[in-house]
Structure formats: structure tokens, C-alpha cells
Amino acid sequence: MKRLVSIELQKIWKNKASRVLTLTYFVLLSFIALIASIKFDLGVFKFHLAEMGIFNFPFIWHFNTYVAAWLKFFLAIVIVSMMANEYSYGTLKQNLIDGLSKKEFILSKFLTVVLFALCSTVFVFIMSLILGLCFSSYNEFDVIFMDLDYLLAFFVKLTGFFSFCLFLGILVKRSAFALGFLLVWSVFEGIAKALLVFKLFPESTTGYTIMKFLPLEAMSNLIIEPFTRLSVIRSIGTQIGVENTKDYGVHYLSIFIVLVWTFLFVYFSYKLLKNRDL
Question: Rounded CA gap, 94 and 103, in Å?
Fold first, then answer.
């Protein structure tokens, strides 16, 4: 396994665009810390994000994983390009000639996907821990390590999404078309959700139940937006008569659904490669 990952990392590092995008991704992840410096002081109106409690334990695990997940598209480009380059530069055929089996080839790609997701999760964990220790009003040991299941959800979300990108890279062969297909699928799920929730099942939760089994929606459901959890937002909602009944927890059914999709993406990636005439 180490040999397979090493081969893939060398390919990524030797490609200038992939190298720049990967480094940019981790640099942008670290920029989450700059949110603490956002301040507005306009007379009686004072706005300081850090003082609103976004870096309080255990809320910080929810907030940072949600924000960091939006940056996954940088690595998505790397993964799609990683696969497209195999066809463009003929390295796929050369790897197979050199004795790498198609199963090992797919395994090397998937292990790289898992490594990216794991490094991202560890990075977010360390950064969140540092920010929390600096800004959190609650530093008790049990509070600090409460709600760490958001990190598990983050890891599963990235692994599932990157596996989807890997599948599209093999299916379409061209990075631009693969990313375009990803966008089209996202729009498709958006339209399907609107039809199911507002047109076909407006009086029940059936539409939402059906949607949670689609891949992108399932990944989205792993980490619900955290902003309406903030006390200041809740206070505003209470004042205008809006009751917040949203469930912010990490649900293991959602994790299971994404893991099933991850398996299917990797399996069909292998089947496509196995049956394709290279």
C-alpha cells in the first residue's frame, strides 16, 4: 500500500498545477483562523465574530468542519485532473505494462483519496484545537473533546466526495467535462429536491427522506449548517417569532449512506477500468 500511495503522490507533486492547488487548499484551510480577526465597530453596533462564540468548545468542531468542507473543491480538481492526466500522458497504460494490475491502480487512487481526507481532518483538528484553546470560554477537558463526531463526519464527507470525483474522472476521462458533470449532477439533485419537497410531497417529509439517499445530498446532511445554533441568531429568531427545531447532530445513518456510495463509486471505477479497452 505504501508503494501505491508513493507512486500517486509523486505524480501529483511533479504536476505543477496539482501541486499548487494542493498547497492552496491547505493554506486556505488555515485562513479560517483569520475569522477571529473580523471586527466591525460602528458606534453602538459592534460585531466581533470571535466574541459571538464561534470558537467556543464544542461548537468549534461543528463550525470549522462545516466551513472547511466548502474548500474541498480545490482537491476535487486535483483528483479529477489526477485521473484525466493518466489518459492524457499515457501513464495509465505504462503503469499496467510495468506490472501494476487494474485493481492495484484503482486502489492506489482510492488510498490517495483517503490520505487527502485524513490529512484534511487532522489539519482541521489541530487548527480547531489551537483556536479553541485561544478563544473558547469553556476549556474543561470533557467539553473540549465533546462532539468530535463532526470530525468523523468531515472525514467521511471528504472521502465520499473525492471518491465521486475519482469515478467521474474515470468515466469522462477529461477533467473539464468531469467537473462539468459534477456541476450538472448538483443541479439535478437541486431540481429533484425542489420537485419532491415542494411539488410532490409538500405536506410531508417524504421528499426529504427520498433526497437523503442521493449522494451529494447525503454528504451535505453529514454536517448541517451551524450558524443558526449561535445564541445571537437564536435570539433574533425568538424575537421575530421563528422557532428553530433543526437537528444539528451527526447521524450515523447519513454516515452509512455516504460509505455505501463511496464503496459504489470505487467499485464502479474499477469495473469501468476493467472493461475499458485502453
Answer: 15
Q: How confident is the model at residue 223 (pLDDT cuts 50, 70, 90)?
A: very high
Is-contact 76 179, C-beta < 8 A? yes
DSSP 8-state assignment for residue 56: S
What are the phi and psi torsion angles at 138 (to 5°)?
-125, 115
> Counting Cβ atoms within 10 Å, is residue 92 exposed (0-12), middle (13-18) or buried (19+)?
buried
Give the pLDDT mean for 147-166: 95
- Cα 77 to the chain's mean position, in Å? 13
Average pLDDT over residues 152-157: 97
Between CA 204 and CA 228, with CA 209 as vertex, the angle to 5 degrees is 85
Measuring CA to CA, how many Å separate 167 from each of 6, 10, 15, 83, 204? 21, 21, 21, 9, 34
Grid cell in block for residue 84: 484525466
H or E stretch at 40:
strand 39-42
CA–CA gap between residue 15 and residue 155 (Å, rounded): 25
- Cβ-Cβ contacts under 8 Å for 14 (sequence gap 6 or more): none
The CA-atom distances, in angstroms, between 21 and each of 54, 73, 77, 163, 184 are 28, 10, 8, 18, 23
Q: Name which residue leads in pLDDT, 36 or 236.
A: 236
Of 63, 70, 69, nearest to 154 (Cα)?
69
Tally of CB atoms within 10 A around 45: 7
